[in-house]
Write a structure and sequence with these properties.
Blueprint (H helix, E strand, L loop, with lengths): L2 H6 L6 H18 L8 H5 L8 E8 L8 E2 L4 H6 L11 E2 L5 E2 L4 H8 L3 E8 L7 H10 L10 H9 L8 E4 L15 E3 L10 H12 L4 H30 L10 H14 L6 E7 L7 H25 L6 E7 L19 E6 L6 E3 L17 E2 H12 L6 H4 L11
Parallel strand pairs: 1-8, 1-9, 5-11, 5-12, 6-7, 6-8
Antiparallel strand pairs: 2-4, 3-4, 5-10, 9-10
Helix pairs in contact: 2-9, 5-11, 8-9, 9-10, 10-11
Length: 414
Amino acid sequence: MNRDKNLTDTKNFSSSRRRFLELNLGAALAAGTGLSPVFSASAAEVKLADNGRILVVLELSGGNDGLNTVVPYTQDEYYLARPTIGIQPDAVLKLSDDYGLHPNLLGWERLYKDGKMAIVHGCGYPNPNRSHFEAMKFWHTGVPNAPESRGWVGRLADTVIPREASGIVMNIAKEQSQAVSSTYHPPVVFSNPAAYRLDNAESQASAFDSIMSNRSRSARSNLDFVRRVTSTAADSSEFVRRTCANYRTNSDYGYGTVGTSLRNIAALIEARADARFYYTNFSGFDTHVSQAPNQAGLFNQVGDAVLAFQADLKTMGREDDVVMLVFTEFGRRVQENASLGTDHGVAGPMYIFGNQVKGGFHGEHPSLSVLDQGDLIMTTDFRSVYGSMIQEWMDVQDVGSVLGGDFARLSLIG
């Protein structure tokens, strides 16, 4: 017999089944399904506890090659190491006398020249790990080489609003990222808004009503809470579906998942959802083989999507309220490989977009002649960038309360 039939056939509820519902369904709704409410009384009560700013994080999963993203087109070492896949100077979208962007990042070029893009050179962490799983864990938690279950975005949300409030964190992805794991704020997690729903909400509510009629006052109170959570979760899923489906924009988000994800985030921001943190990812950057065509296609998508997102923020009058951080779990090795790709490396650039961003280059570009076993040497701890987002953007002055330590600030917001 399936779970749905058990829920609707209230006569067959065993006492253990009832007890399970009383104790666990509320938690399951919040943590297991991602269906935490988008709007709630608790969220409304604490709105004034933060500055109203929104942080969007875009993860480029797989280890994006930073040297072919921000191209050191005047350095001979770059072309000696990459005789086949190096981006030729006449193709580079030149941002300065020394560095330029991959030719398919036209959207990023426009944002950079408008002063809405910051590039931070040489980001990494001490004692780097080239495993996708381990490296991503370090970036997600913000605590490399140390045990930590909560994510840095989740801990930041806990600090900005240090009590339970629904819908503060949204994770647009097929699976929840560790980056958004928190104590107080179970994230709203969805990939396809049309499929984001709480199934059988009406039959579950009917089952709760039947159980409540035969329970003590305290038990009825607990079950009433669960019933309200179920109802509110159903309402919030309807809000997400309706908001994303009805969103209209003249901006071209291009094709692919990253455009769809950023379009949905724009829709929710325009609808004034309570979320202060949006987290999404775009995969495919593990370019061991045939990097040139693969990376070019990915850059077409992410370049168009980020430009469209920024354009929509301006149209809706929210461009001063939102900053986007873009990162990847590691860079690639300097030398191209025999498969016309690149292998796992260490340091690479991070990117920050927004009307409030101090555009331009920040930090020191790693040397291409002084390497560590073929890898670029980190010049900027990625937690310095996180720290700037925490302190300068979200106005949390005690960075150590989120990252477990203090790191040099880069002055990225102004």
